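Give me the fold.
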Amino acid sequence: RSRDKERVRKRSKSRESKRNRRRESRSRSRSTNAAASRRERERASSPPDRIDIFGRTVSKRSSLDEKQKREEEEKKAEFERQRKIRQQEIEEKLIEEETARRVEELVAKRVEEELEKRKDEIEREVLRRVEEAKRIMEKQLLEELERQRQAELAAQKAREEEERAKREELERILEENNRKIAEAQAKLAEEQLRIVEEQRKIHEERMKLEQERQRQQKEEQKIILGKGKSRPKLSFSLKTQD
C-alpha cells in the first residue's frame, strides 16, 4: 500500500511539474509579447524631432513627460496582469494539489479495499513463497554440506597420499642407510680380517724368530759345553820284543 501511495505521489508531482513548466512558458511568452508591443507603441507614438531655423533640436520635455506617463501606466497594467497571472497560477496549483490529494486518498482507499478482499489469497501466496524459499534453502544447505563432505574427503585423501609418500621416502632413506651400514660393516669386517691376518703373520714371524734364536742359543750352549768337556788325548803304542 505504501508503494502505491508513493507511485501516486510521484505521478502527482510529475503532473504538477509539467503544469509549472507550461505556466512559466506562457508567462515568458506573454512578457516577451508585452515588451515587443510596448516598444512598437513607443516608436509609433514618439513624434519626430523638431528642428529650428538654425538646425537645433527643439526641447522635448512635453513629449518626454507623456512618454514617461505612458510607461508608468503600462508598468501598472503589466504589474496588474502579472498579479492576475500569479493569482491564477496559485489557484491552479491549489486545485491541482487538492485534486492530487483526493486522488491519492481514493487510490489508497481502493488499494486497501482490494488488499482486504484478497487477504486470504495474499496470505496463501506468502505461505507458498515461504515454503518455496524454505525448500530452496534446504536444497542449498544440502548441496553445501555435500560440497564440504567432498572437500573433506579430498583433503583426507591428499593427507593420506602425503603420508604414504612420506612413509615411502622414509623407508627408502632407511633402506639406503641400512645398505650403507651393511657396506660399512662389511668393509669393517674385511679390515678386521686383514688386521687379524697381519697380526697372525707377525706372530708367526715372531715365533720363527724366537725358535731360531732358541736354536742358535742351544747351538751355542752345545758348543760351549763341548769345549768344557774336552780332555787330552792318550796315545797308546805297542812295543815289539826282539
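Helices lie at 2-45, 61-117, 119-228.
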